[in-house]
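Morning - copper (II) ion inputs below, output right after.
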Amino acid sequence: MGLEEKEIKVVGMHCPSCVNAVQLSLTDVDGIEDAKADLDSGITKIKLDPNTVSEDDIKDAVEEAGFNVE
Ligand SMILES: [Cu+2]
């Protein structure tokens, strides 16, 4: 079972603690191994197990942290 890299765009981040919150919320999801968000672009790279994680899981985690997926 291989990991996949997925890229999303998160909107609403405006400081390093926003970045942290997004990353923590994402890596908290079962099946997400790593998440790196870029503050300026919002581009967030997620390393995940595609069999475990759905688009909705990602969206929910970002929203739970208080942000949105574009
Ligand atoms: Cu912030």
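Note: The first strand starts at residue 4 and ends at 11.

O.
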